[in-house]
Automatic annotation (TrEMBL):
NCBIfam families: pseudouridine synthase. GO terms for molecular function: RNA binding; rRNA pseudouridine synthase activity. One of its GO terms (biological process) is enzyme-directed rRNA pseudouridine synthesis. Pfam families: PseudoU_synth_2, S4. This is Pseudouridine synthase. It is an enzyme of class 5 (isomerase). Its EC number is 5.4.99.-. The keyword Cell membrane does not apply. Belongs to the pseudouridine synthase RsuA family.
Length: 256
């Protein structure tokens, strides 16, 4: 049965479907000796596929890991600045896993890693609204009105790749869970369902409270219980099933 090339690559553990699409458009994939750049190209089981000159192996055993990402670690497969990456931390895993989404260099917390390209693509799709919970230490102590702004959805003005961008963040759950009046800092828990570049930092900055430290304490139903920074564990079967069945997805943000 013919399947899309990027889907076959993702199932083989090469990369996520989105990253596989990038490999295709860059001309790094051949099918039966011919470079393929067209997304959506369908291949048959008997077709010979190579990525960067290496034959596509049979589908790997699908594995799923939760990593507590430490600070000063890059959430990429490779880094041109030779910084430590999440791949260095999980080097003992035999399968070719990769991170689902990203956490900033200085952000810690829950990061899912897998070679299941289908699931990765599903989890990152905006329409599934995966719930992500962050805890931030911020400058100043947010007022009730500022928390209300976050809960109603705040407009963010930011710079991405040297270009000014404006977006309206969806309503978030926001609460203060600690405050130091003497130092004028607070600990804020923020629950969002989007995944824009630096989103949590930009949302808090937009209401006047720059982030000093940030961690993602939960991704869907996956939390950091028993995981110290730099540690990782395989997901339990019921956790994988819950992710695949969409039990951790919110169909709409609803009232907060």
């Amino acid at each position: 049965m013919a399947e899309r090339l990027q889907k076959v690559m993702a199932q083989a553990g090469v990369a996520s479907r989105r990253a596989s699409e990038d490999l295709i458009t860059q001309g790094r994939v051949t099918v039966n000796g011919q470079v393929v750049r067209t997304l959506g190209t369908k291949v048959e089981p008997h077709d010979h596929i190579e990525v960067d000159g290496a034959p596509l192996e049979g589908r790997e055993r699908l594995v799923y890991y939760l990593l507590n990402k430490p600070r000063e670690v890059v959430t990429t497969v490779n880094d041109d600045k030779d910084r430590l990456t999440v791949m260095d931390i999980v080097a003992d895993v035999k399968e070719r896993i990769y991170p689902v989404g990203r956490l900033d260099y200085d952000t810690t917390g829950a990061l899912l890693m897998t070679n299941d390209g289908e699931l990765a693509n599903q989890l990152m799709h905006p329409r599934f609204q995966m719930e992500k919970v962050y805890v931030a230490k911020v400058k100043g102590i947010p007022s009730n009105d500022e928390l209300k702004t976050l809960r109603q959805g705040v407009t963010v003005h930011t710079i991405v790749n040297h270009r000014h961008e404006t977006f309206h963040a969806a309503p978030a759950k926001a609460e203060i869970i600690g405050a130091d009046k003497q130092k004028q800092t607070a600990i804020v828990r923020l629950t969002i369902h989007e995944g824009r570049y630096h989103q949590v930092k930009e949302m808090l900055k937009a209401v006047g409270h720059p982030v000093l430290k940030l961690t993602r304490e939960r991704y869907g139903i996956l939390d950091l219980t028993s995981l110290a920074p730099g540690e990782y564990r395989p997901l339990r079967r019921e956790e994988v099933q819950a992710l695949k069945q969409g039990k951790t997805f919110r169909k709409s943000a609803g009232r907060l």
